[in-house]
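Researcher: Please translate sequence to structure tokens.
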Amino acid sequence: MRVDVAVVADYASITQEGKLILSGAFDRVAAMQLPWRHPTMTLVIRLALEPGEPRSFTVAANLVDDDGQPVVPPMEQRVELPEVAGGGQPSANLLFTMNGLLLPHAGAYAFEVFVDGSHTRSVPFEVTAPPGGGAAEGEGQSALH
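Model: Translation complete:
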């Protein structure tokens, strides 16, 4: 199985035709205060199967901080891919969307992605501290990302 896309974005969707739409891909959040409540964040994954690989599998995403501690409960999606007409290569677009995600501190974070229990990819991003260290819980948009 090949990972064609693995990114964190502000918004993503999948059309009826299976097209992946994403907007605002980022790898850094400039928090205006800490802890920071990020309005909406989507982990976007596109997987392509190699010939002979199973068409049924589970994809899990675990968001961890720089100490390896979980930030949210693990997220899972079961994937069942049909045969592709003409023998083409099957693929899957997956979206893991989190609203109001609380990021407790500045530092490195990563989505650890697993397919049927095997680690497939890390998707890192960083949260930077506001000038002066801001201590109150933040709401709304970050200055940059």
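Researcher: Any highlights?
Model: DSSP finds no helices and nine strands in the chain.
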